[in-house]
Amino acid sequence: MIRTSFNDDWQFRPKVNPFAELAGTAVPFEPVIVPHDAMINRARDATLGGAATAYFPGGAYEYRKTFLVPEEHRGKRIMLELEGVYRDATVFVNGNYAGQRPYGYSRFRIDADRFLRFGENNEIRVECRTHQDSRWYSGAGIYRDTWLLVGEVVRISPDGVHVTTPDIDAGRAVVEVATTIENDSNDLRTVELVTEIRDVAGTVVASDTAPITVQPHEPAVARRRLYVRDPSLWSPDSPALYTCAVSLTGIDAVEVAFGIRSLRLDPEHGLRINGETVKLRGTCVHHDNGPLGAATFAQAEERRVRLLKNAGFNAIRMSHHPMSTAMLDACDRLGMLVVDEAFDMWTWSKSPFDYSLNFPEWWERDVEAMVAKDYNHPSVIFYSLGNEIPETGAATGAIWGRRLAEKVRALDDTRFLTNAINNLLALLPDLRAQEGDDTGINTLMADSGFDVNAVAASDLVTTRTAESYSVLDVAGMNYSEIRYATDRTLFPNRIILGTETFPPRIDRNWRLVEQHSHVIGDFTWTGWDYLGEVGIGRPQYATPDNPRPTFMAPYPYLLADCGDIDITGHRLPVSYYREIVFGLRAQPYLAVQRPQHHGKTVMSSRWAWSDTIAGWTWPGHESAPIIVEVYSDADEVELLVNGRSLGRRPVGEEHRLRTEFETTYEPGELLAIAYRDGVESGRDLLRTATGPVVLHAAPERPVITADVGDLAYITLTLTDSAGTPHTAADRPVRVDVSGDGTLIGFGSADPASKERFDATEHHTYRGRALAVVKPTGPGTIRLTAAAPDCDPVEVLVTVESRPR
In what order do the strands lie in the sheet with 793-800? Predict the structure, then answer.
């Protein structure tokens, strides 16, 4: 079927009661850009939504679009594909009910041709709603891409090309292509099926032609084996992609990208890709794109994947729902491994109106949608059946787990299965009886006085989770690293994946991953900061009135404040520490604790890193005590303040790859020098910003395209004249966009900002802000920015024509 973008010319408004509208209550539609988040620009309030969803209100929304269907399309098959509508989507075509999808993260299609008026304009309307149905910021509306599919009555089925590579050696690879062909006519039809494999240069490296006979209204599956000589293998370090082009001569054609790679799994070698053992340096990520909210633009997804990989990760666990197609495509191209997750709940609810209300009726269709979306993506190596599902500690939960597992295996037996099980949940009724009914599991885990690992290691957990783990290929464990060693003896065939772990424990966890062959990786919570679950990683300090940490923060907190990378894409100190732990960074790294909290008792949650930034600009704190952290895998590090040595301290693995120096703040230069075997092995330098503040604006890519999903990211920074970041000189920045683009998001990484992302003015945070611009066509985008006491700046971004 021919696929064309259906993103243009949508209109949007809050859902209106039709009876109220008849009585004169009119709410006008407004034009919007799809993908669109209906929630991100709504006013937040302490009384709305709640901390989990960042104090955004719920609501009901409707979209509409008018489109012409040519007369020549009469007799064809026409479908509308929506990659994601949050949530409880209902679709109407020319006023007729055409379909629905309760789950907000599933791609679905609407068979529209039966309702269409050919040669005339037609209207499609999409309604959706969200209310107390998520534990994080979900966004709302048509937040992923939409597509129009047009095909003949005999055609290749959507998602009808499945490519596998079951047999690979150095000289050749077997590529099996299974193509599903549909025949909606009333006649027996014989068609010619042509299958070609092309390499990255577009050269045909294997081909096959065969006749296929299809009965009326009975799909036929044609399986072909092709042989690629001297194959280039897909791996995280070398993500070689091929194209499989399948056509029905003169009727239909489809192209899909795929990779040639093999997967193996056992307790002695762990996970092997193309015969090589790979340890997963993983991160969990939520789906929002910071200042864009939940809107899923292809460039936003690719940017996140690229920056996460640059920071040392080689794997993403999508938390806690199926990943977008755009992000999967980026993971394929860039070499990022994927654990794609189905659900955050099964039959037991976590929020009053969540998907558990729909799960018993819809789970099979949503699993089918996830697998159909993922099948040809070489980056996908695991399906996860769920996240912290409370039922996993009960016999009925094990039954559900086996049911889901066998469904996925029936659809795709080329990947492995896991389930991100929180062992605390196996004992949740017991814990509630001891702690009180209103004590949530996250509150327990945030409390440093509660021993998460001790509970996870208990015999009762071992017994209650045994069956749920047994239905999986890999036991996914959240916050249960204490089981890694003991389970090797208790369950010799068990392979373990740390599906969710606390950031400050990465050094100890990674040592366990390296020591144990049956432990194949670690996924931190989290690699990229996100909206909602506000303040779980914020710095907290003990006071007489507040002696214990709390899980989430009060309004106006907006962000979780716990990512290695903030929502603008800026790497934080924990990211560089993790890179050292992974053995990917030889240079030391300097981070400075904020002096205004010196001497206070830290009581942050286990998701929090130390309250540090990579900066040596602290006006008003001259001569005040200050703590400097240095991260390094060297033997020792020396710290110098303005050339004056504070001595050397041991660092390295025995000291958890970090050390601290206490000194007094004085402006100037802060220098760390690392030594290995007495010889300098690297250094890191911080300088104090001095003099007038200078505003800079720089596009990440000076040339972009007018293609669907492309964006321009423009970073705004405050520095001194030498380029040193002015982290303590925050001020409002106003931007104006003209030319061939429109501003679709503007903000900072301030975790507690009250400012909106759709405004043209926003305060910097630690000297930084980010503007996101969508091109409106080929030409030039001009962005000008101004800030108090700074000279205005201007940047130009060239927009090239969409590639054909």
Answer: 703-705, 793-800, 779-786, 732-739, 761-763
Domains of the chain: 2-149 (2.60.120.260), 154-250 (2.60.40.10), 266-290+331-372+380-528 (3.20.20.80), 584-687 (2.60.40.10), 694-800 (2.60.40.10)
What 3-state DSSP class applies to 119? coil
Q: Is it the case that residue 153 has pLDDT exceeding 70?
A: yes
DSSP state, 463? H
Per-residue pLDDT at 547 exceeds 80: no
Smallest CA-to-CA distance from 472 within 392, 382, 405 is with 405
Report the pLDDT averaged over residues 789-799: 98
CB contact at 8 A, 759 and 746: yes
What is the pLDDT confidence band of residue 34, given thresholds at 50, 70 and 90?
very high
Measured distance CA(155)–CA(159) in Å, rounded: 12
Alpha-carbon distance 740 to 776, whole Å? 5
- Pick the closest to residue 530 from 325, 287, 357 (CA basis): 287
Question: Which two tokens mark 17?
Answer: 């009661």
Q: What are phi and psi of 232, to 5 degrees?
A: -90, 120
pLDDT above 90 as % of the chain: 92
Output DSSP code: residue 115. Answer: G
**Predicted TM-score (pTM) above 0.85:** yes
Mean pLDDT across 68-75: 96
Query: DSSP assignment of 34-58, as one string?
Result: SS--SSTTSPP-TTSS-TTTTT---
* CB distance 82 to 142 below 8 Å: yes
- For residues 281 and 597, give the distance between their C-alpha atoms in angstroms, rounded to a whole number: 33
- What's the CA gap between 91 and 126, in Å, rounded? 5
Report whether pLDDT(343) > 70.
yes
**Looking at the DSSP assignment, which residues form a beta bridge with residue 198?**
204, 243
Three-class SS of residue 469?
A: helix
**CA–CA distances in Å: residue 304 to residues 161, 523, 565, 584:** 28, 16, 9, 19
CB atoms within 10 A of CB 801: 11
Cα separation of 421 and 426, whole Å?
A: 9
Find the helix or strand (DSSP H, E) in which 520 lies: strand 519-524
Q: What is the C-alpha end-to-end distance of the chain, expressed in Å?
A: 18
Residue 657 has pLDDT above 80, yes or no: yes
Higher pLDDT pick, 449 / 271: 271
CA pair distance 570, 749, nearest whole angstrom:
9
Backbone dihedral angles phi then psi of residue 290, each to the nearest 5 degrees: 60, -120
Distances (CA, A) of 233 to 230, 274, 375: 9, 8, 17
Alpha-carbon distance values, 123 to 34, 230, 600 (Å): 16, 51, 61
Instruction: Tell me how crowded residue 138 is: count the other CB atoms within 10 A of its CB.
Output: 29
Mean pLDDT, range 384-402, rounded to an integer = 95
Distance between CA atoms of residues 343 and 428, nearest Å: 19
Between CA 226 and CA 173 the distance in angstroms is 8
**Helical H segments across 295-336, by residue range:** 298-310, 325-334
In whole angstroms, what separates CA 201 from the centre of its chain?
30
The partner residues of 154 in beta bridges, in order of sequence, read 183
Task: Round the average pLDDT of the chain to a whole number and report it.
Answer: 95
CA dist., res. 81 & res. 34, Å (int): 13
Asked whether the CA dihedral 542, 547, 553, 555 is positive or negative, the reply is: negative
Name residue, tokens 């191209």: 333
Residues in the chain: 804
Phi, psi (degrees; rounded to nearest 5) at 179: -115, 125
Which tokens sit at 392?
């996993």
Please name the residue that has the structure tokens 């923060």.
Answer: 553
User: Which of helix, strand or coil describes residue 134?
Assistant: coil
Element housing 66 (H / E): strand 59-69
CB 553 within 8 A of CB 534: yes
